[in-house]
Every structure is written in structure tokens, then in C-alpha cells.
TrEMBL record:
This is Nif-specific regulatory protein. Interacts with sigma-54. It comes from Rhizobium azibense. One of its GO terms (molecular function) is sequence-specific DNA binding. Residues 229-457 form the Sigma-54 factor interaction domain. Required for activation of most nif operons, which are directly involved in nitrogen fixation. The keyword ATP-binding applies. NCBIfam families: nifA. Residues 1-24, 495-518 are annotated as: Disordered. Keywords: Activator, ATP-binding, DNA-binding, Nitrogen fixation, Nucleotide-binding, Transcription, Transcription regulation, Two-component regulatory system.
């Protein structure tokens, strides 16, 4: 949709009248949106969060200054964030952006573009306008921050105009509109927290310490606990706190994180803590089904709708009516099906495949993905309108490498589960705990569980020691998922870049990752380089993978058991090494 000002104002021009300028690279916008989403989900007061968003904007846009103004119930400026720490007070809010400009954007609900603020009456209404920069012309762009057709505030930027380089207004408006959509969700969440009993926004403490850091102080509330979620690291506690708050609402949640971080478990926790806990919790893996089957699974079908439809069947939306529906791997659905799903989410109505009757459903939706949806939107692989519909409250689950202090507790809990299932009484020695704490688990909690079960199964005594682990016996095959990405210390795990983690100089890296395909150079666990050398023979990863596939008759599930991996990990490895699966 093209944004146009509701009516012309002095010195303002519609988007179509301005030169388009060079197109900003899509990668810059994706990076900006990603960084801003991380800022918005960090534990901090709203004023600090908004100031940090402005700082990120300054990093990705060539601007003179930026500002976010939040309006109160009467439409008056309540918070004015300009990137300063601490942000501007309420009394200074009027000086950040002229009141006439704020009123214009809030009244029209449309973007405002001014090529030269010195020629606009809106910017001359203030007694001492802060927009003067000598004889240098200043250009301005402002967009509304709104949710559910209610104006919550404004986001604006200004820059020195350069006639030699046309002002890229269209690109800036699109980018700022995306940022405004994310900011509006954060403002609503903070206001919900205030209604739940916390102090009003303007009366909150001025301490810059994040909420997580304050929990241990005297008089503070204890960390939030959710049954079954193990760990007390700050990264995990931030997620737990957010989940406990979000669960009380009906807002759509998007769980993001790497494979094995427990997205399905957190979705279950959100349901159990919600008012819908006595209603059904239904889940579906969208990546496991082709488009035709997926439509039938979600929407249901009528008898005779297609070959094999011998009876009427209710879909997952109907089965979850009144409860919660988890759509896992939401990023894998096709563009054609995305349009069908969007209609159901917007209207709350659906029709079974082959049917004509419209059915109304009341479902709280939780989506999960490990895919970079921002990049998928930029590449036209994922609909932007569906992205905004499902990303109301994004929650990023931390990988295990960001919470190493939780590994001992997790490992003991997983071992207790193994003991109950197998009537055993195994325990971990201190050396065993040390080995696991120093390991890098690309598969996160899921891989940790596999490691615990494999080691417990093969343990020779009731106390598991370091020598019982596969990495200490040259049998750790996790290196099949590792390869360099060409940068120093860069690796990829499960096909996802990890260039910013586990560099070669890191004490947790256990040695460098060579550029060749030989696994003899891979050190996966031991920080001293002596333990966990994954497959020290001269055979390459590709050779071992092909050998396992041939032994398994080219059945990935069997090959996975031979290699001690999951079928999904074997599938990734086959694609990484470009091995064509033979049909026998």
C-alpha cells in the first residue's frame, strides 16, 4: 500500500513528487529490522528501549537525528526518545518534534515528508525551533506508530538535504513503517504490564539496569518459574518472564530459535498458563506435509472432496476451537498456502476443502520457526502481511551455548528421566559434568539429550565418567554438521551461519575448524585440543556419510542410527555435501 499524506501542507510533498533516489540494499533493511527486534525484546524500561531503537536507526540510516514520541490517552507527548540515555523527559517532549508536526501525523494517520523544514509552517510554530541548521536545508520524514487503528505515537528522522543525491523517501517510509509496526507492539505490551499493577510509564525507576539484573536485589520479586523449564541463566529467565506475561493474553506469539531449543515445549507452557488451558492444545508441523495435505489437515475436508476422502473430517483449526494451535516450521509453507492461511487469521473463518459452509473458529495461534523470516520477506518467499500477522509478540529462545551454566542441571534432569524409563540408578561424576559443560552442542537441548542417553546406555558402571563419552573415544560424529563459512572462526551448523560464535581463539571452541573437508582437523569438545577429535581417521565426512548410507540401503533413518545422529541431521549433511540419494 502506498502511503500518501492526507492533504498537502506548506513545504510538504507527496511521495510520488519526490525523486526515488538509489535503492537501499535489501540486506541493510533486513539487518536493521533484525537488530531492532532484538532491542525491542530485551528486558528494559520502555524509555530505554525506544532510545536504543533510535540509536539502531542512526546506525542503518544516514540521518542527522531521529526521534520516537509516545502519546498518552489524551494525545499529548508522554515519552520522547532521541537516542539519549536517559531519554528526554515529558517536559522536554515538545522540544523534540514540534507539536504541530506530531498533531498532523496523529490526525491524518499517514506519513509526512518535508523536503525543507525551513519552508514549512508546521516547523515554524515553535518559539525556538530546534530545526535550524544555518543555511543548510533539512529534510524530514515522519510516520505514525499505530495499532488497531489507534495512534500511539510517531517515528521520525531528519537529514541534511543533498540535491546532488536525491532523497530516498519511498525507501525510508517503507523501512520506518516496518519499524513502527514493531514498536507499536512493544508499547502495547508495556502498557499491559502497567495495567497489571506496575507503576505508570512516567513514574518508573530511572535506573538503567535491566529487569533481569535487578531480580537478585533485596525486595525484588523472585525469578519466574514454569514447571518443566530448567535453568536460571539470565537469557532463559528473560524468556520465561515474557512467556508468563504473554500467556495471560490472546496475542499471537512467534517463537524463534535454533533447532532443539524447545519451541514446542514453550508453546505448551504458554497454553498451560493461559485462560485457555482447559481447552485443546493442537500442534502441527507445517514442514512435514505437502501443500495439498496441509490444507486438509488445517481446514478439514468434506466427504468426496478428493480421492481418499471417504468421510468428513475436521481440521486442526476446528479441533483447537477455544484453545491453542501451534504451527511449527511456519516459514516452510508455500506462498500459495500463505494467502489461504492469512485469510483465516484475518477473518477467523474457514471453509473445509470441498465445502461451501463457512465455519467460525476462536483459536489462539502460536507459530514457531528457525528460519530468518525477515530475509524470506525481502526475497519474496514469505508474505509481508502474514509476517506482521504472526509476529505480534516475537520471543527468541536462546541456544544452549548462550546458557552454558544450565547444562549441568539439564544433564542431570535428562539422566533422571533415563533412569526412570530404564530402572537404572546412574549418576554423573564431576569429570563427566565438566566434559558436557565444555562441549558445543549445535543441536542444543535435543543434542544434549541424545548425548546423555547414548552415554548412559553404554556406561560401564553406575557413575558416568569422562571416558564414557563418545568424544573421548573418537566416536563423536557431530562434526558432520560443521563446516567453515570462509571467515576466521566461522562455522555453519544445521545449515545456519554461526560466524559470530565459537571463534578459533575461544576457550570453548576446542581448537580450530579447518577449511578442508577432513574431519581429522576438527576438534569439537576438548578445550585443550586433546579430547573429542571427531573421527581421527583420514576418511572425509563425505566418505563416512556415503558409507553409512550404503550400509543402510540409502534409508536416511537407518543411516542416522549408524552415525548416532537424527534423520534431519543426516538430511542436512547430504545436502551440504551434495550427495544424491539413490532410489533402490
Amino acid at each position: 500500500m502506498t502511503h500518501m499524506p492526507a492533504r498537502p501542507v506548506d513545504g510538504a510533498e507527496p511521495l510520488s513528487a519526490l525523486p526515488a533516489g538509489p535503492m537501499r540494499q535489501a540486506g541493510t533493511q533486513r539487518s536493521g529490522i533484525y537488530e531492532i527486534s532484538k532491542v525491542l525484546t530485551a528486558p528494559a524500561r520502555l524509555e530505554i528501549t525506544l532510545a536504543n531503537v533510535v540509536n539502531v536507526l542512526s546506525s542503518f540510516l544516514q540521518i542527522r537525528c531521529g526521534a520516537i514520541v509516545v502519546l498518552d490517552a489524551e494525545g499529548q507527548p508522554e515519552i520522547a526518545a532521541t537516542g539519549d540515555i536517559p531519554p528526554s523527559s515529558q517536559s522536554a517532549a515538545r522540544g523534540v518534534i514540534p507539536k504541530a508536526v506530531i498533531d498532523h501525523i496523529a490526525t491524518t494517520g499517514m506519513p509526512l515528508i518535508v523536503k525543507d523544514v525551513s519552508k514549512s509552517e508546521l516547523f515554524q510554530a515553535e518559539p525556538q525551533p530546534p530545526w535550524s541548521s544555518g543555511t543548510v536545508p533539512i529534510s524530514f520524514i515522519g510516520v505514525p506508530v499505530k495499532a488497531d487503528n489507534k495512534i500511539l505515537g510517531t517515528i521520525s528522522i531528519d537529514r541534511v538535504r543533498n540535491d546532488a543525491a536525491p532523497f530516498p523517501a519511498d525507501e525510508d517510509v517503507r523501512f520506518l513503517t516496518m519499524v513502527a509496526n514493531l514498536v507499536s507492539r512493544t508499547i502495547r505490551l508495556h502498557r499491559f504490564l502497567n495495567l497489571e499493577g506496575r507503576r505508570p510509564i512516567g513514574e518508573q525507576e530511572r535506573s538503567e539496569k535491566p529487569i533481569i539484573a535487578q531480580r537478585g536485589a533485596p525486595g525484588r520479586h523472585p525469578p519466574v518459574k514454569i514447571d518443566g523449564i530448567i535453568g536460571d541463566s539470565p537469557a532463559l529467565q528473560q524468556v520465561v518472564e515474557t512467556v508468563s506475561v504473554v500467556a495471560r493474553t490472546n496475542s499471537t506469539v512467534l517463537l524463534r530459535g535454533e533447532s532443539g531449543t524447545g519451541k514446542e515445549f514453550f508453546a505448551q507452557a504458554i497454553h498451560e498458563l493461559s485462560p485457555r488451558k482447559n481447552k485443546p492444545f493442537v500442534k502441527l508441523n507445517c514442514a512435514a506435509l505437502p501443500e495439498g495435505v496441509l490444507e486438509s489437515e488445517l481446514f478439514g475436508h468434506e466427504k468426496g472432496a478428493f480421492t481418499g476422502a471417504i468421510a468428513q473430517r475436521a481440521g486442526r483449526f476446528e479441533l483447537a476451537n477455544g484453545g491453542t494451535l501451534l504451527l511449527d516450521e511456519i516459514g516452510e509453507i508455500s506462498p500459495a498456502f500463505q494467502a489461504k492461511l492469512l485469510r483465516v487469521l484475518q477473518e477467523g473463518e474457514l471453509e473445509r476443502v470441498g465445502g461451501t459452509k463457512t465455519l467460525a473458529v476462536d483459536v489462539r495461534l502460536i507459530c514457531a520457526t528457525n528460519k530468518n523470516l525477515e530475509m524470506a520477506v525481502a526475497n519474496a518467499e514469505f508474505r509481508a502481511d502474514l509476517y506482521y500477522r504472526i509476529s505480534v509478540v516475537p520471543i527468541v529462545l536462546p541456544p544452549l551455548r548462550e546458557r552454558p551454566g544450565d547444562i549441568p542441571r539439564l544433564a542431570n534432569a535428562l539422566l533422571d528421566r533415563f533412569n526412570k524409563e530404564n530402572q537404572r540408578e546412574l549418576t554423573f561424576s564431576s569429570s563427566a559434568i565438566e566434559v558436557m559443560s565444555q562441549c558445543y552442542f549445535p543441536g542444543n537441548v535435543r543434542e544434549l539429550e541424545n548425548c546423555v542417553r547414548r552415554t548412559a546406555t553404554l556406561a560401564r558402571s553406575s557413575s558416568i565418567v569422562s571416558s564414557d563419552f563418545a568424544c573421548k573415544n573418537s566416536q563423536c560424529l557431530s562434526s558432520l554438521l560443521w563446516k567453515t563459512d570462509g571467515s576466521p572462526g566461522g562455522i555453519t551448523v544445521d545449515g545456519h551461519a554461526r560466524s559470530n560464535v565459537m571463534p578459533t581463539s575461544s576457550p570453548r571452541s576446542g581448537g580450530s575448524i579447518g577449511a578442508s573437508d577432513e574431519v581429522s582437523s576438527v576438534k569439537a569438545c576438548d578445550p585443550h585440543g586433546s579430547g573429542c577429535p571427531a573421527m581421527e581417521s583420514r576418511l572425509t565426512q563425505r566418505d563416512r556419510l556415503i558409507e553409512a548410507m550404503e550400509k543402510a540401503g540409502w534409508v536416511q533413518a537407518k543411516a542416522a542410527r549408524i552415525l548416532g545422529l537424527t534423520p534431519r541431521q543426516v538430511g542436512y549433511a547430504l545436502r551440504q555435501h551434495r550427495i544424491e540419494v539413490k532410489k533402490l
